[in-house]
Design a protein that fits this description.
The protein is α/β, with parallel strands linked by helices and 501 residues long. It is built from 17 helices and 22 strands. It binds nicotinamide-adenine-dinucleotide.
Length: 501
């Protein structure tokens, strides 16, 4: 086992400049404090590693006023798409230059390893940002011929224009904090919108740094505002605020439902990226040498704190024993440790609350008859560690098979020859991701078509790309992150009809 508690001695000066201090919010380009502050904890040891303002309804109001002013007046309102593209590309360069620092800060606040935070909070979202920057110059409506119906003697020129949806409120979770922030901000800014962002109270530092870098890149004051605070206060105030035109939310289905209900009062546009319980299906003809580590990665990647984590595994009876044995080996071989220790393969969960939630689920599985064949424990240490867990002998009626755990817990189910794997995969209220592991190409294609999920993978799981839209169906929400779809959801279509008779 690696070191369990983070040692800050080797942190870079840049990371130390961000950590261990009180931060401000960013409103109208100004640093704004508050009367109360929220401590941010390192989940490897529970130590306070800094604090952020506990924003209020009034902070949200000020941020919305700034965002609306920047949307309607000033340089952003008249800025050409190529200029927005240039600024966003500059922002991507600045994030990349600071990549190691941001990865360290993220490792401390979220407990994920440096390799993970560098890849998924810096390199990947920087690519997403560059992709979106390019989209800024590809916004176009349509022209069409009209007038045949009710005014045949008249001639018209008709077209559609795509315009920014307005002020966008981004509300994000803690699992990949900087990536989530960039996913929200990039398409909104590329489309010409202005933004009020609320990071998770558990992991707010990199979003705040992103705001500073945005100013440095040339994004005008007021275009990108950040309000920190508690979800039920700051997040709820954003959803209720009549000055916000669209809410782009990522988080739990429970909160997503609240937001959809509250936001409907002011007819807000919405993108809701919610929870998941994604199935992985291992067929009898799968290449097990590749599938077993692939499936293990599908669940244990990012400590299972992935919305699309493959947390329900269905294995054909012919290969069940072999797959289970392989997965137990994979789970037991993962080196747990502190996020800054380079030998660590899996850090703690994001918080003690998250650890308790995951352990409660494991306990419920046990009570309902599941067999813990790997992990299932917390470590005797103040950090929020949970050992990578495999639950065998699970069935569809168990909570661990139906509910999102959001931790390193895999529920394994056996299926028989002739069982309909599409029905098994669809046996969930969620519809975010799904994967099938097989060498049968037609089976794979049929699965892709029939499964109700936003993304379907074949012989892989959790592969995302800036050019591939990512979103869910059913209780996993609606709308997309990334690709053209994300930017289009920040634009509204206006129709124009011009009499040229
Ligand atoms: P959460 O729903 O508790 O919180 C998410 C954000 O919403 C936080 O910033 C929080 O402060 C805020 N919030 C809380 N209550 C609010 C309210 N009443 N009004 C407005 N905002 C409020 O989720 P979490 O625990 O931070 O994150 C884990 C969840 O996120 C999991 O369910 C996971 O599946 C989901 N998630 C989904 C995706 C996706 O793309 N579908 C990606 C990552 C995480």
């Amino acid at each position: 086992m690696a070191e369990l508690s983070n040692n800050y001695d080797n942190l870079s000066d840049g990371a130390l400049d961000i950590l261990f201090k009180s931060h401000d919010m960013l409103i109208g380009g100004q640093r704004v404090g508050a009367s109360d502050y929220i401590d941010v904890l390192d989940p490897t040891n529970g130590k306070v590693v800094g604090s952020v303002p506990k924003g209020t309804k009034e902070s949200v109001n000020q941020a919305v006023i700034s965002a609306r002013r920047a949307l309607e007046h000033g340089s952003w309102a008249t800025m050409r798409p190529y200029e927005r593209e240039k600024i966003l590309l500059k922002l991507a360069d600045l994030i990349e230059l600071e990549g190691d620092i941001l990865a360290e800060v993220e490792a401390v606040e979220s407990g994920r390893t440096l390799m993970n935070t560098r890849l998924f909070d810096v390199d990947f979202p920087v690519n997403c940002l560059r992709y979106m920057a390019g989209c800024a110059t590809k916004i176009h409506g349509k022209t069409t011929t009209i007038g045949q119906g009710f005014a045949p003697s008249m001639e018209f020129f008709a077209c559609t224009l795509l315009e920014p949806v307005g002020v966008v409120g981004g509300i994000i979770p803690w699992n990949v904090p900087l990536c989530q922030a960039i996913w929200k901000v990039a398409p909104a800014l590329a489309a010409g919108c202005t933004v009020v962002l609320k990071p998770s109270e558990m992991t707010p530092f990199t979003a705040l740094r992103l705001g500073e870098l945005a100013l440095e890149a040339g994004i005008p004051e007021g275009v990108f505002n950040i309000v920190t605070g508690i979800g039920s206060e700051v997040g709820a105030a954003m959803v209720e605020h009549p000055g916000i035109d669209k809410i782009s939310f990522t988080g739990s289905t429970l909160v997503g439902h609240r937001i959809a209900t509250a936001g409907s009062k002011t007819f807000k546009k919405m993108t809701l990226e919610l929870g998941g319980k994604s199935p992985m299906i291992v067929m009898h003809d799968a290449d097990l040498e590749a599938s077993i580590p692939g499936v293990a990665m599908g669940i244990y990647g990012n400590h299972g704190q992935n919305c699309c984590a493959g947390s329900r595994l269905y294995v054909h009876e012919k290969v069940y024993d072999k797959v289970l044995e392989g997965l137990i080996e994979e789970a037991n071989s993962i080196v747990l440790g502190s996020s800054l220790d380079p030998t660590t393969q899996m850090g703690p969960l994001a918080s003690i609350a998250q650890q308790s939630r995951v352990l409660r689920y494991i306990e419920s599985g046990k009570e309902e008859g599941a067999e813990i064949v790997a992990g299932g424990e917390r470590l005797d240490h103040p950090g929020a560690y949970v050992t990578p867990t495999v639950l065998a002998e699970t069935n569809r009626d168990m909570k661990v098979v139906q509910e999102e755990i959001f931790g390193p817990v895999l529920s394994v189910l056996r299926f028989k020859e002739g069982d309909d794997v599409v029905s098994l995969a669809n046996d969930s209220e969620y519809g975010l991701g799904a994967s099938i592991w097989t060498q049968n190409l037609s089976k794979a294609h049929q699965f892709v078509r029939q499964v109700k999920a936003g993304t379907v993978w074949v012989n892989t799981h959790n592969i995302l790309d800036p050019a591939i839209p990512f979103g869910g169906v059913k209780s996993s929400g609606y709308g997309h992150e990334m690709a053209e779809e994300a930017m289009l959801s920040h634009l509204i279509t206006k129709s124009a009809v011009i009499n040229i008779t």
